[in-house]
Amino acid sequence: MLLTALALAAALPIATLPPIVPPEAIAIAPRPIRQPDLIGNLYLPDRTGRAPAILLLGGSEGGLGQATAREAAALAAHGYVVLQLSYFGSPGQPPALKSIPIETFTHALDWLKARPEVAADRIGIIGTSKGAEAALLVASRRPDLKIAVMAAPSSVVWPGIGGAEMVTESSWTEGGQPVPFTPYGWTGAWKGIHALYADGLADPAKGALGTIPVERSRAAIILVCGEADTLWPACPMAHAVEARLRQAQYRPGVTVLSYADAGHFVFGTPVDTGSPDAARLASLGGTTDGVIAARTDSWTKVLAALDRVLRPGEAR
Question: Is 110 strand, coil or helix?
Fold first, then answer.
């Protein structure tokens, strides 16, 4: 039962996302990047000169998902160079989200900064779900990042996700060694996927094992969460990050955008309320109207935060 439930939870995000394309995304076509150590799609804005850039990470769907592609295109339409990165699940990459080298992300950042279209001193990172876990981890190791946005975030490193098997190894490695992680809170009785994470955090000793040292970052931190998230306790984890940073008097600043009636799909390009697929956004918590409202509000506020940090003084 446990293995089946874990496999189902891993598959849900890609299975339930609606195929909705916002108008601003239609005209932006990506440039495929297919290198032995870098797989992604590069989205370029319609502007002259060097532009600020964003490394964009999807979640447990793997590869180059459609939802993340829509975000990338919309961000490019707004004026950013965007690299949508595949870090597992594409040909030549690990098939499962476990033991993924952090160097995958740091190499992508270095590649992005070296692009002639990019203003190398104005770089941000955005990640959702497991991509948010990775983004926070990377931000704690890359002082050159100016802003980091985590949607449906984690405050700790968790075990990987391996389809039908129960993964007992870290999601990430660094220098060939596993990054310390917080184990699932398996009590012997199945209480749902959310409980595996919540119970893991509830154990004071084990819960702290995977704590991500975000205090080492120099980026402005934005965390977006739905209080009704049924996949994992995103809002408690977001507030845990906020509390640590405020205690550390973190000068770049931290903002939590939390939404009472939204779930795991709290962030992304705004969705047309008339779409027949919109209801599927509530499949991992919240209500359809709540998730739609949260996405509209959080997308607008995240764009404003990105502009303040990465495009100060620009006329828009």
Answer: helix
Give Cβ neighbours of residue 22 (< 8 Å, ≥ 6 apart).
Answer: 70, 74, 269, 270
Give the chain's residues under pLDDT 50. Answer: 1-26
Q: Give the E-state strand segments of 87-179 in sequence order.
A: 100-101, 118-128, 147-151, 172-174, 177-178
SS3 44: coil
- Measured CA distances, 187 to 4, 197, 203, 207, 231 (Å): 17, 11, 11, 14, 18
pTM for the complete prediction? Answer: 0.91
Q: Which residues contact residue 168 at a Cβ distance below 8 angstroms, ignoring those fewer than 6 apart?
A: 159, 183
115 burial via Cβ count (<10 Å: 0-12, 13-18, 19+): middle
- How far apart CA 113 and CA 115 sit, in angstroms, is 6
Contact (CB, 8 A) for 290 and 297? no
Is the CB of residue 226 less than 8 Å from the CB of residue 259? Answer: yes
pLDDT tens digits along 212-241: 999 999 999 999 999 999 999 999 999 999
pLDDT of residue 27: 59
Residue-level pLDDT at 273: 81
Q: What is the pLDDT of residue 3?
A: 38
Report how far Cα 25 is from the mean position of its chain's Cα atoms.
Answer: 19
